[in-house]
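Sequence in, structure out. Go.
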Amino acid sequence: MVLPFGLLLFLIAAAPLAAPHFWEKYYAHVAVGLGIFTASYYLVGLRETGPLVHAVREYVSFLALVGSLYVVSGGILIRVKGEAKPLTNCAFLLTGAVLANVLGTTGASMLLIRPWIRMNKYRITEFHIVFFIFVVSNVGGALTPIGDPPLFLGFLKGVPFWWPLQHCWKAWLIATLLLLLVFYVLDRRNFLRAPEQVREMETREENWSFEGLVNVPLVGLLLGGILLPFGWREALMIGAACVSWFVTPRRVHEANHFDFAPVKEVGWLFAGIFLTMIPALQVLGANTEAIGLHSSIQFFWSTGILSGVLDNAPTYLAFLAAAFGSAGLNLDTDMPLFIQQQASLLLAVSLGAVFFGALTYIGNGPNLMVKKLRTSKKCIRPTSWPTLCATRLPSCCPY
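Output:
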């Protein structure tokens, strides 16, 4: 019964490349169909509803958080000055890394990806998008349960809200600064190759501005709501998203090219993932010794590698279950004892899932959203300089 889980993750990785038209049309049918198959096994075959109830609760909480952050952040418009120097870009990414812990990697990514493209519009390249995914969509969100979906699932399992900040901040700081250092070297080379007349033409009459600030109090409401019990928490999040949708001026949504396609895709895919991963979690929890995982470094690399090629949220839960199994504890009831006895394993699994989720587009939900916006027909494209750029700057012109 682990096969539907593996099949779904394989299709998420391979189908968009091998059969893009089929996958775009039927991905929801495939994901939900495999999920129903697994759910039927538990309901009809085993007559066991406990695991299904846990999975549905976690999925509802996960989607409420991701969806509400997506809607609220989509109601804030940031207009930027076109020219971005390397140090400005580094400061922007560092700000995004901090915001990822407040808005979530989903909210921060949706809020900042469009300004990021705009401010680098005359020299945008793939490495700009990749490092945005590295810093803002993944590594940046390692300090709070709001920050990244795996940590939110850990919070739902009983990890204290401030535990990631207290234990992950050193690794977060080191990883973020090293990524920014590498990015600065690459971006400076790119910046120096841009003709000065292109910079002047593209930045004329542009200034920084912010709209949709009515959504800022709603962000605070979401932050406070995460501490509420199940049911109240999700109701508050959905309510905040509805308020944001109705009070945000239409021009802000239009300027952001806002639509529900990215969160819709994540919602359908994760419906299948949360159901099909139930047997995988149980197998890992019951067979940790056979897998041979014991030390924190083994858990870090194992969680990380699979988070990069699968999805980091279910991978986090799978290896957290394995860590509990190695300690002879129950994932659903023994979290305080596990933290007291095996804090290093929790740290290893948390960092592995959050950091390595940046390796592929399927490693983390926000990656898919950024990819969808980046490849959308509505993606912001330069208009005034294509001839000049194509003839004098071909290596930095993706269009």
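Check: The chain has one domain: 3-378. The chain has a mean pLDDT of 85.
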